[in-house]
Amino acid sequence: MMPCAPLSGVVVAESGDRIGAGVCGSLLAQLGATVIVPEWSDAHAGKHRHRAQMVAGKKSIGLRRGEASEQALLDRLVERSDVLITSSDLDPAARPRAWPRAATRVECDITAFGEGGVSPGAPFSDAQIQALSGILDTTGMPDGPPTPIRLPIVEFMTGVYAAAACLAALRVRKQTGEGQTIDMALYDCAFAAMATFLPRLFENSEARVGRVGNRHAMASPWNVYQASDGWVLICAASDDQWRRICGVLSRTELADDPRYRRVADRLARHAEVDGFLQVWVGENTIERCIEVLGSIGIPCGPVTKVEGCPREANLDHRGAIRRVAVRGGAETLFVPASPLRMSLTPGLSPERIPERDEDRVEITALIEAAPGTAPRVASRPDVLPLQGLRVIEIGHYTTAPLGARHLANLGADVIKIEPPEGEAVRNWPPAQNGTGYFFALTNADKRTLALDLASQDGVDVLKQLIARSDVLIENLKPGALAKRGFSTEAMARINPRLIYCAVSGFGADTIYSGRPAYDTVIQAMSGFMDLTRAGDVPVKSGISSADLMGAEMAVVAILGAVEARDQTGLGQAIDLSMQDAGSWLTMPLWNGDESAPHSRVLQASDGFVMVEDDGPAGPEGAMPPDRAAKFTRGELANVLRDAGHRAAPILSAVEALASDQTRARNLVFYAKDETGDEWPLLASPLRLEGTPPVARELMRPLGSDGDAILAELEVKEPTTKTARQGA
C-alpha cells in the first residue's frame, strides 16, 4: 500500500496572480496538497495568460467582482486554508493582511521587491526584475545588446523557492503549532542567481562583468555551432578533449600548435578555434555530430526545439511531458509531469485541467465542513525548520552545494565531504587566502570533512556517517557512489530512514548513461535556448539557470521527503534531473502560446533599457531608436512607463550589487574568518519572518571539522589519516 502524499490533507488557497504564485501552488499540489485557485472573472494577466499550465492539477472556483457573496466565499476559503499564497503588489486587495491573521496559517506573499525594499508594492514584471538585477545585462552576445529572456525565469525561481519556504513553515507549524508569514521577493531571488558573477566584483569593485554569449570564460571551444539541420552545443573543458576534437576534425596538427595547445591559448584565439569547429559541424547533421563527439567523451547536445513542447528523446523516456484533457475532454494540451521523481511518494503529475469554476460544489463543501481557525497569537516560534537534521553533501560546483547551503540556512547540520585535495572549486579564482569567493558563497554554514572514498577507510567512515544521518545529497556522475558500494539499495540497508537525493543532468533513469552534462548543455537540451535568441542564434542565459533550478528543486524534493518520513518512518531516493527541471521552466511557451509579454531593448545615451508590452506585437512602436538615444537610462525608463509601457534600465552586475534595493534587503553581508579577514556572504532568499533562515559563517579550511565530527557522531576512527585529512 502506497503511503499518502507528503501534503495530503493540506489545503492551499492560491489567490496570487503572479506566475510565481502559480509555480508555488503547482509544486505543493504535486506533493499532495489540495490547491484551490480562485479565478476572478476579470483576471487575464500574470499566471492567467498561461491558465492551462498554471491550473493543471488544481481545483478552480470562479468568482465575480463586486458581489458580496463571492467575496464572503473567498473569505471562508482563506479562513479554512492551511497555506495562503498571494501577490499583493498585483492585487493589493488580496494580500495576507486583508484577512484576519490565524494562529496556524502559513501566508506567503510573492512580490517584485518584498516588504521593506526601496519600491515596496511596485508591481514590476519578471522582465523588469531581470533588467534591474543584472541578469539581462549578462545575457546575449558580447558585441551586441542584452538579449531578453522570453521565459519568466525569475518568477519560476521565486515560485520554487516559495514552495520550499512554505514546506519549511509547515514543518515549523507541526513542531510548534504556529503559522507564520513569508515575504518572497523576485528581486532577492534574481540577485541570488547572480552568484557566479559576483566574485569578480568582490575582488575588484570596478571589474567589467558582462555578456559572453554561449562561450565559457575559462574553456574553449565552448559554443553553439550550426549543423546542416540545426544547432548543436559543444563544450571542451580540457586540453585532452581539444586533442580528441582535433582528431575528429582531421586537423591533428592543431593539437600541438602552440597557438592552440593550452586552454589559455585557445581562449585568446576563441574566434579561430570556433571557426575550425564550425567547418566540420556545418558539413554534418546534428545526429552525426553528437554520435561522433559523444563516442569520444565530448560534452555536446542539440538545441532542442520547442514545437508544442520540447522535443527530446530523454524527456520522452522519463515521461517529463504529458497530454492532459481540457474543456471537458474536447482538447488535450501539453503539460509537464512532476519533476519530483521520488521513489516512495513520487510527485503527482497533473491528471486534469479544470474548467473555470468546475470545482465549486466540492470546494464549497470543503469550506463548510471545516471549522474556522483561531486568531494568531503574538508569540513566535523559536526553532529553525530543519534543526536537528543531519545532511551529508557530496557535491561539487553548483547544484548539490547550493541545495545543501539552503538546507544549512534552514537549520540543518550540513557536513560537506570533500576529497583529500578539496572540492574542485575550492581554489577557483578570484580567491582570498587561497579560497575562492564562489566556493565561499556556495558553501557557507557547513562543516568540512575530507574523506578519500578511493580508500577502504574512507568507505568505512562514510558508511557510519550514512547510518547516523537524515539526508544525503550529491551531484556526482550517476553511478559513481554505487561503484564505491553505495547503491540506492545499499544505503537503504545501512539506514532505512535516509533520504538520498541524486542530482544529475539527465537523471539516473536516462538513455544518456555516462554522458557529461554541464549547465549550458542542459539549457540547450531542455528547450530553453530555442526560446531565447540573439537574432537567429540560440543563446543561454547569463546565469546558470539549469544548475540553479536543479538546486532549488532538490530543496523542495528533500523537504517533501522529510515530511513523508515523518509520517512513515521511511526514507526514499530522489532522482532529480536538471533537464526535467529546465524543460519544466519552458512550459509558459508550450502549446503554441503567444500570449506571453514581448520585450525589446532600446539604447539610451548611457546604456540600455528594457521595454515590455503585452501580446504578440510587443513594444515595437514604443519609441524610435534615434529619440531613445537622447535620454539617459533612467529618463528613458520613466518616459516609457509614463506612456504605459513596462520598462526598466538594464543595470550591470556591479550596479545591481551597489543598488539601494540590494542594500535595503541586506542581500550581501560580511563575516570574518579565523584570521579576521572579511568575506561577503549572500542572504537566503527564503524570507520566513517567524523563523528566518540564518546565514552565519564561512566554511573553515579543508578538513578542519573532521576530528570534531567523527568524535561527536562516535564514528570509528579511520586507520589512516588519508581517509579524512588527505595527508
CATH topology of one domain: Rossmann fold
Determine the structural class based on helices, strands and strand pairing: alpha/beta
**CATH C-level of one domain:** Alpha Beta
The coarse silhouette is globular
Q: What is the spatial order of strands in the main beta sheet?
A: 3-2-1-4-5-6
Number of helices: 26
The unreliable regions are 374-380
- Give the termini separation: 50 Å
Major sheet summary line: 6 strands, parallel
The CATH architecture of one domain comes to 3-Layer(aba) Sandwich
- Number of DSSP E strands: 26
Can you offer a commentary on this structure?
With 727 residues, the chain is α/β, with parallel strands linked by helices. Among the domains are: 238-298, no CATH class; 390-585 and 672-723, Rossmann fold, CATH 3.40.50. Helix content is 33%, strand content 17%. A 6-stranded parallel β-sheet has the order 3-2-1-4-5-6, sandwiched between helices. A hairpin with a 4-residue loop joins strand 10 and strand 11. Helix 19 crosses helix 21.
